[in-house]
């Protein structure tokens, strides 16, 4: 084969040079050899070297002198049409012998063209035949390929053989193209066709060499595979031939087609259902010339019939180069997906080790060709946009995520649905990965849509993206559990992506109050908290691309969502368990230092938390956004210690560097200054009244609405609009309650005692001040916060009385209507701790149903829902607690 390739390549080169030569003659106005019987070359020499005299001797030896002379004459501008010597011809004129025109046109190049045409015509016809066989193999379910797919306990490598139909189709198309280019290129002497033909033939030769090397290297592996195949095939015959119609039909079709008997020989049928049911006789295929079953001696005497395995082996040996080339092609495709995942894992490692720019640089070159590079690159940019909250960053992240979705779309299956009825039509591994990446892109794009656009149409589009994403995740989740799912080498990454999507949806939706959750379930969503947690836990602990995303979502849930929107307890143990492997792997990772600080803060270890947050700031200087997260927590840590100036310092940093909630940062700056003694100097010469008055000017919207905490801060700051404003009594402690800060200090009695002193001083100041329109509201606020401190100190009866004082003043409260429902929630949580279940349910239902349109209502409703879920109410209230 290699020798034929080399010979054909030489012929192509000669024909190509002939084509170039004739083309050059034509450009010079000289007829080609085909038209002049070979004299064109002499005319070309005369044109190049000048004058007939210089080549007369050569012309005298030519069989085509008259035509050559005429050609020379045309080159020199003469017009002799007779073909004989013209004026100025060489004196040694002569008369050539008569030669037939066909003989003149025929020569070496003509012979090459004929051979090229015949040889490539055969290739063209062979390619057409192989293409037809490939289509037949793909359509015919009764072929040997279908049998291999149904063998139980067969080696998983055999599933690659099911692609032989595609192999034959690809091979047939390749041979048809080669034959066509060879035939047409030889006849027409087309430079383009001949060059393309030469390149393809050269590539085939290179593939042969590579195939030979691969065969030498992997021969032992192939022998082992064939041994496994033989064992499985013989077991299949002995167990099912004659009993299972499908297996019997497949074997009969195979033996009729290949003219063979059994896998190795007729002895494979001994002990099979057919052998037992036909009086120890063998199928008719084992007996040539017979249409009936035969006995042992007849089968042994049939020397012309061999087993199907030798026939298959001969077929493979005859087409080794093509099979190896296609196998290498399949391997390259699989390696491409694996290489993409490996490189993305490496980029995430860089990201988690604080090498943010290097991570993006590694991903950037392949964002237009790899769905995973595009997705991870866009995800990192979206994380950056979420933290900076800059419009340009959000817009850039949105465009990048849209491009990533388009890349994923190119790899998706064109027809709808993940799988058809037949196993052969199910999605490939690449297509499955494309589905999960596409769903993730849609989910993240919807989040950016809510941040970027504020009109109703954009919200509707975002909602549709969320639902489409969920439906894809849901269908994928069902599909990967079915037997039709192909588990490729990158299956763990696929399962990780699905676990992240389904887990995130279930966990997030489980936090919603029952009324909203019922509406969402009617729309097709589900909110099973335990199931979502288990999926995310599996994803976080596995070594897959989404491990980091699953872990971050769980850490946010354990340290923020359950703490701020729940009962204020959090799940520190789970958070610490989840953090340990990541801290070992990324000891200086800013993200994990931040969450480690958060867990210490929840445990009440404020000094340890401060040290970890400061380490998080020192760990990297590239992305200041991580610093802002640490600044926020440091601000609260110093608040718990009542270090008002230090807390002010971090609030000031946030107001200057972060765009997330400037109104909130300005409010906190003013609040900390108001906590200082009146005669104490203010940092930077700022005055709290001026700062409070600036708060409304920094109002912004997220998803078309102002954040609840920002609206709350703006409403509280309105007091300072008056020329002689009434000061807020404890604005820092009031905001601290909104972030469940009193639960943070519950394990530190000295911190609780400090807060109680601050509240007592504020209460004394209120009593000493003249009565004003805010007096009742301020006193109720003091009672609520004192009740929390008393609860932390274990004085439950006194805490209950403080909460009751707030509830009893409901009709007197003029502005802070949020105080009563929150007092009821705290009362309910107090009853839960005391085991007073019925009373807890009563006050929680009252807080849930009796109050509307008050500040921070959503937060209060989330907390009521969390408290009721904790109680696991009985039948009457089960709908409220069941997720």
Automatic annotation (TrEMBL):
Q: Which SMART domains match?
A: TPR (SM00028)
Task: Quote the CDD domains the UniProt record gives.
Answer: uroplakin_I_like_LEL
Q: Which UniProt keywords apply?
A: Membrane, TPR repeat, Transmembrane, Transmembrane helix
Q: Where in or outside the cell is it found?
A: Membrane
Kindly list the residue ranges recorded as spanning the membrane.
Answer: 114-137, 164-187, 194-218
Q: Give the record's membrane topology.
A: Multi-pass membrane protein
Q: Which InterPro entries match?
A: IML2/TPR_39, Tetraspanin/Peripherin, Tetraspanin_CS, Tetraspanin_EC2_sf, TPR-like_helical_dom_sf, TPR_rpt
Establish whether keyword ATP-binding is in the entry: no
Record-stated family: Belongs to the tetraspanin (TM4SF) family. Belongs to the TTC39 family.
Q: Please state what the protein is called.
A: Putative tetratricopeptide repeat protein 39A-like
Species annotation: Scophthalmus maximus
* Species classification: Eukaryota, Metazoa, Chordata, Craniata, Vertebrata
């Amino acid at each position: 084969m290699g020798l034929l390739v080399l010979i054909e390549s030489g012929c192509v080169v000669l024909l190509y040079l002939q084509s170039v030569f004739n083309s050059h003659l034509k450009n010079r106005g000289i007829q080609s050899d085909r038209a002049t019987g070979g004299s064109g070359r002499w005319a070309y020499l005369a044109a190049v070297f000048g004058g007939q005299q210089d080549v007369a001797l050569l012309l005298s030896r030519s069989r085509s002198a008259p035509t050559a002379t005429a050609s020379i004459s045309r080159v020199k501008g003469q017009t002799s049409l007779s073909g004989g010597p013209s004026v100025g011809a060489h004196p040694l004129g002569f008369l050539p012998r008569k030669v037939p025109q066909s003989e003149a046109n025929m020569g070496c190049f003509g012979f090459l063209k004929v051979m090229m045409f015949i040889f490539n015509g055969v290739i063209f016809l062979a390619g057409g035949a192989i293409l037809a066989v490939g289509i037949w193999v793909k359509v015919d379910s009764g072929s040997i390929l279908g049998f291999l797919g149904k063998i139980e306990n067969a080696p998983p490598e055999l599933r690659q053989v099911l692609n032989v139909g595609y192999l034959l189709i690809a091979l047939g198309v390749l041979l048809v193209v080669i034959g066509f280019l060879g035939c047409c290129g030889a006849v027409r002497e087309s430079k383009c066709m001949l060059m393309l033909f030469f390149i393809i033939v050269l590539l085939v030769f290179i593939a042969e060499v590579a195939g030979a090397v691969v065969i030498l290297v992997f021969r032992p592996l192939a022998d082992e595979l064939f041994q496994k195949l033989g064992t499985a095939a013989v077991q299949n015959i002995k167990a099912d031939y004659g009993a299972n119609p499908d297996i019997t039909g497949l074997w009969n079709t195979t033996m009729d087609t290949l003219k063979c008997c059994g896998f190795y020989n007729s002895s494979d049928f001994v002990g099979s259902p057919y052998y037992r049911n036909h009086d120890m006789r063998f199928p008719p295929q084992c007996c040539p010339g017979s249409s009936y079953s035969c006995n042992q001696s007849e089968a042994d005497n049939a020397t012309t019939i061999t087993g199907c395995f030798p026939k298959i082996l001969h077929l493979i040996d005859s087409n080794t180069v093509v099979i190896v080339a296609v196998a290498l092609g399949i391997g390259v495709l699989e390696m491409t997906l694996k290489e993409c995942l490996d490189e993305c894992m490496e980029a995430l490692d860089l990201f988690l080790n604080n090498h943010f720019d290097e991570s993006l640089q590694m991903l950037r070159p392949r964002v237009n060709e790899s769905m995973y590079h595009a997705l991870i690159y866009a995800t990192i940019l979206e994380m950056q946009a979420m933290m900076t909250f800059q419009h340009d960053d959000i817009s850039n992240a949105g465009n990048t995520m849209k491009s990533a979705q388009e890349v994923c779309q190119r790899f998706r299956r064109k027809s709808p649905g993940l799988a058809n009825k037949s196993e052969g039509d199910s999605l490939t591994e690449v297509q499955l990965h494309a589905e999960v990446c596409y769903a993730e892109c849609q989910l993240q794009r919807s989040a950016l849509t809510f941040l970027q656009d504020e009109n109703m149409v954009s919200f509707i589009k975002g909602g549709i993206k969320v639902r489409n994403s969920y439906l894809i995740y849901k269908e994928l989740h069902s599909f990967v559990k079915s037997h039709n799912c192909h588990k490729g080498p990158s299956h763990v990454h696929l399962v990780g992506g699905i676990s992240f999507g389904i887990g995130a949806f279930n966990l997030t939706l489980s936090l919603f109050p029952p009324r909203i959750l019922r509406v969402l379930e009617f729309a097709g969503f589900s909110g099973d908290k335990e199931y979502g947690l288990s999926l995310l836990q599996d994803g976080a602990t596995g070594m897959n691309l989404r491990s980091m995303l699953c872990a971050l979502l769980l850490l946010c849930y354990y340290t923020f969502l359950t703490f701020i929107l729940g009962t204020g307890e959090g799940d520190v143990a789970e958070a610490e368990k989840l953090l340990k492997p990541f801290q070992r792997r990324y000891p200086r990772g800013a993200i994990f230092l931040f969450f480690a600080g958060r867990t210490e803060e929840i445990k009440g270890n404020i000094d340890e938390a401060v040290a970890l947050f400061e380490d998080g700031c020192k760990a990297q200087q590239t992305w200041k956004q991580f610093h802002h997260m640490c600044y926020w927590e440091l601000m609260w840590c110093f608040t718990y210690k009542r270090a008002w100036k230090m807390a002010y310092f971090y609030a000031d940093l946030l107001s200057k560097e972060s765009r997330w909630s400037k109104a909130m940062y300005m409010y906190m700056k003013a609040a900390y200054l108001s906590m200082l003694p009146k005669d104490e100097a203010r940092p930077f010469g700022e005055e709290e009244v001026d700062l409070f008055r600036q708060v409304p000017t920094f109002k912004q919207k997220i998803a078309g609405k102002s954040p609840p905490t920002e609206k709350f801060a703006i409403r509280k700051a309105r007091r300072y609009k008056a020329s002689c404003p009434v000061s807020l009594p404890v604005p820092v402690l009031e905001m601290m309650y909104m972030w469940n800060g009193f639960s943070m200090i519950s394990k530190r009695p000295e911190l609780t005692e400090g807060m109680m002193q601050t509240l007592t001083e504020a209460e004394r100041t209120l009593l000493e001040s003249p009565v004003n329109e805010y007096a009742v509201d301020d006193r109720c606020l003091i009672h609520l916060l004192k009740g929390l401190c008393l609860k932390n100190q274990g004085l439950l009866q006194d805490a209950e009385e403080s909460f009751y004082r707030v509830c009893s003043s409901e009709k007197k409260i003029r502005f802070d209507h949020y105080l009563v429902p929150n007092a009821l929630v705290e009362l309910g949580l107090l009853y839960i701790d005391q085991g007073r279940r019925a009373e807890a349910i009563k006050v929680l239902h009252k807080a849930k149903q009796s109050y509307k349109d008050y500040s921070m209502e959503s937060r209060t409703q989330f907390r009521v829902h969390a408290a009721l879920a904790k109680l696991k109410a009985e039948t009457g209230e089960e709908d409220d607690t069941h997720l």
